[in-house]
Structures are given as structure tokens and as C-alpha cells.
Amino acid sequence: MGHDVTFSFTVDTTGLYDILQTDSSFHPDLALYDVSFNPASPSTNFLVDESNFCCKLALIPATLDAGSLVRQLRVRPALT
User: Fold this and answer.
1) Dist. CA 22–CA 30, nearest whole Å
2) Exposed, middle or buried, 31 (CB in 10 Å: 0-12/13-18/19+)?
3) What is the C-alpha to C-alpha distance for residues 55 and 58, in angstroms, rounded to an integer?
4) Measured distance CA(5)–CA(73) in Å, rounded
5) Rounded distance between C-alpha atoms, residue 34 and residue 42, angstroms
6) What are the phi and psi torsion angles at 39 (to 5°)?
7) What is the pTM of this model?
8) Pick from 50, 49, 55: which is nearest to 80 by CA?
9) How far is it, in rounded angstroms, from Cα 77 to Cα 80?
10) Is 62 helix (H, G, I), strand (E, B) or coil?
11) How far from chain centre, in Å, is Cα 80?
12) Could you give the count of Cα atoms lying within 13 Å of 32 in the half-sphere of its Cβ?
């Protein structure tokens, strides 16, 4: 497996968001965390994940609230 890459973000408008990853070079593995992601404790702050090993895309539909709450998206390239 590859190493974890994380992205922090907030949303300006409350609503349903589709977080989509596509890549033709590996099978995607996404996870959404509330506030932060700690690789030493991956279940802490965990919200939802999507590991799609039959296709080259991953989709997380999530209802997100607007405001100052930071979300952390973890992306992990899996073995092809």
C-alpha cells in the first residue's frame, strides 16, 4: 500500500456533497474524518470510507455542515 495523503477543508454551504476520486493508475481508497486524521489511531474521528477494489473510482456521499469545522480527507493509493 501507498502512504496516506490528507487534505483539510471546510464547506461554505450546508448540503450533500459527493467526494469523488478517479485515477487510472491505482484502486482508490478514501476516508472522511471529522476534524483530523491520525495514522496511529485511524478510528479516531472516523466518519465514513470507500475502498473500491473492483473499479478505478471511489465515491463518498456526505452531508456536510457549513462553518468552521475542519474535515480531513485521507487518500491512500492501494496496490494495483
Assistant:
1) 11
2) buried
3) 8
4) 8
5) 12
6) -60, -25
7) 0.72
8) 55
9) 9
10) strand
11) 19
12) 21
Query: pLDDT in tens for each of the 80 residues of the chain?
Result: 557 778 888 889 999 998 887 765 556 678 888 888 888 888 898 888 877 656 677 788 888 888 756 677 777 665 54
CA-based nearest residue to 58, from 21, 13, 25 = 21
- Nearest Cα residue to 18 out of 53, 39, 48, 54: 48
Q: How far is CA 67 from the centre of its chain?
A: 19
The length of the chain is 80
Q: What's the N-to-C CA distance of the chain in angstroms?
A: 9
Residue with cell 452531508: 63
Give Cα 4 distance to the centre of its chain. 10
